[in-house]
Amino acid sequence: MSTTTGHALLHRETRGSGPDVALLHGWGLHGGIWHHVAEDLAPRHRVHLLDLPGFGRSGWDKGCGDLEGMARRVAEHLPHECSLVGWSLGGMVALRIALLFPQRVRRLVLVATTPRFVAHRSWPHGVDPATLAGFATHLAKDWRRTVQDFLGLQVRGDEHQLETLRELKRIVSQHGEPNGAALAAGLEILRTVDLRDQLARIRAPTLAISGAYDRLTPPGAGEALAAAIPGARHWLVARAASAPFLSHRAEFAREVDAFLASPAPPALAASTTPARPAAP
Predict the structure, then answer these.
(1) Nearest Cα to 228, choosing from 206, 204, 259, 196?
(2) Which of 38 and 266 is assigned the larger pLDDT?
(3) pTM for this model (two decimals)
């Protein structure tokens, strides 16, 4: 199904029944990347697979050109209250939605997600800025090759590297070609966004997931992310790279399903409940 609010038309598929969970994909891909995860979660959850603006079957408009605009547009197409599972760029979008609309986000699962994608003297857990600049330069010349190269980096070091890369390449074009402006905007978000000073404001119970061999978002990024979000937990997937939901499907599904079903810590639950007015 697709939904619209008068701006970019976003494609969304829904399956299963139970508490709402939305799955947000990474750069260059689309919601179909979550097909197996949706199958695993659907018995106990109503799962929504979204194509981010300009990716897959979703429309694009310039209002989605930064993280703020993208997060607000995605939020327009979500259930009023749901948990968010975000991968890479999708994890950044999930974080921003949780900051903008804390009362709407039950839980956060952040896969290969970082508050700052590029390295800096104050942040050693990122990609060399020159590497990302190279992707941006090559994007206009050959977007397909650029996306393929990016996917190659995401699986490098994984114990199931070849199988995972084949799966990513098989899925990437299933929903059509991504919009060129969306690809460029996504890279710019990865280049410029730094959410570190906002993480302490996250109130949703959070699980940060890292692959032990991830070259794009190294485990240190996930550890730092979890340490900065109140009450968050970090799970390191041994022998995985950037896409543990593909390379280590059974482990991933068990861990995420258990986290989504567990009761919220009392302190966090209280902090997300609107205060009642004082008695007269």
Answers:
(1) 196
(2) 38
(3) 0.88
